[in-house]
């Protein structure tokens, strides 16, 4: 049995969307203090290389969608339990923000069930990073007064009523995990009567030197993006605000390659 007087501490933290400078001061401190760092794939390695305790054990946990090589939630949870019950400071590092489509509930439940003290450190989510680094405000006067964050993948079983709402909203729609099934996503919106001239953008590796943005309209994107395989991670934006990119674009990006390690 573990010694209840020697239980460690778990920090659940978001490392931001890719730019290594977009981390919080609190996360920088936790990196320097951690005994064990359990990191998702979508973490810029420079964040760990530049700020982590040199004696820390770094465990790369994978977590890439559609890839069977990803570490299972059960494996990650067992690592948290194992090291925290040895009295260690454990940093569970996730890409973007810790609570935006990141399944943080699993880690929270694990900590509570084993009486392991924890904290949650927010990070800049991919949508905020992509919005800023492409010059596309997610809301803007006369363009959109609201924004909806969603996921789209083969398991996104939205009802017909929900698609009706999405197809007719004036909100900006931000789809995480949508680029691999972009044609299906667009066809759903068009089927439920979205304006065919609505602008759409796919943003690869937002905030990094490899950032690329592809823009089109719902009616033209299947042709414009034909045979395009988008680099992970990619984000899909739908709405009139996409038109602001050309006017307010400021970040170059465009390098070939990836900042994120493959698994």
Description:
- There is one protein chain.
- Helix content is 28%, strand content 21%.
- The protein has 263 residues and is an alpha/beta fold.
- It has two domains: 4-124, Cobalt-precorrin-4 Transmethylase, domain 1 (3-Layer(aba) Sandwich); 127-248, Tetrapyrrole methylase, C-terminal domain (Methyltransferase, Cobalt-precorrin-4 Transmethylase, Domain 2, 2-Layer Sandwich), CATH 3.30.950.
- A five-stranded parallel sheet has the order 3-2-4-1-5, sandwiched between helices. Strands 6-7-10-8-9 form a five-stranded mixed sheet, with helices on one face.
- The chain is elongated, with a radius of gyration of 20 Å.
- The model has no long low-confidence stretch (mean pLDDT 93).
State mean pLDDT (0 to 100 scale): 93
Tally of discrete structural domains = 2
Strand content: 15-25%
Side by side, the strands of the main sheet go 3-2-4-1-5
Instruction: Look at the structure and give the CATH class of the largest domain.
Output: Alpha Beta
| CATH H level, superfamily name of the largest domain | Tetrapyrrole methylase, C-terminal domain
CATH architecture of the largest domain: 2-Layer Sandwich
Beta strands, count: 10
Number of helices: 9
Helix-strand category: alpha/beta
What is the percent of helical residues?
25-40%
From the N-terminal CA to the C-terminal CA, the straight-line distance is 35 Å
Contiguous low-pLDDT stretches (5 residues minimum) are none
């Amino acid at each position: 049995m573990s010694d209840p007087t020697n239980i460690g501490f778990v920090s659940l933290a978001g490392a931001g969307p890719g730019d290594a400078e977009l981390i919080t001061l609190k996360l920088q401190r936790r990196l320097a203090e951690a005994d064990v760092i359990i990191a998702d794939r979508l973490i810029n390695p420079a964040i760990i290389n530049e700020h982590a305790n040199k004696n820390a054990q770094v465990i790369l946990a994978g977590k890439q969608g559609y890839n069977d090589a990803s570490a299972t939630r059960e494996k990650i949870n067992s690592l948290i339990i194992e090291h925290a019950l040895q009295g260690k400071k454990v940093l569970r590092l996730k890409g973007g923000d810790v609570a935006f489509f990141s399944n943080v509930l699993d880690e929270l439940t694990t900590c509570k069930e084993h009486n392991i003290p924890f904290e949650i450190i927010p990070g800049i989510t991919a949508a905020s990073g992509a919005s800023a680094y492409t010059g596309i405000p997610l809301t803007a006067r006369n363009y959109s007064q609201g924004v909806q964050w969603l996921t789209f993948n083969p398991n996104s079983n939205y009802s017909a009523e929900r698609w009706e709402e999405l197809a007719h909203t004036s909100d900006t729609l931000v789809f995480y995990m949508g680029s691999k099934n972009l044609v299906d996503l667009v066809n759903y919106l068009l089927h439920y009567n979205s304006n065919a001239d609505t602008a759409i953008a796919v943003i690869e590796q937002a905030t990094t030197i490899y950032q690329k943005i592809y823009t089109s309209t719902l009616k033209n994107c299947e042709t414009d993006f034909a045979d395009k395989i988008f680099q992970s991670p990619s984000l899909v934006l739908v709405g009139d605000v996409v038109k602001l990119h050309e006017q307010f674009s400021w970040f170059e990006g465009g390098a070939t390659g990836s900042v994120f390690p493959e698994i």
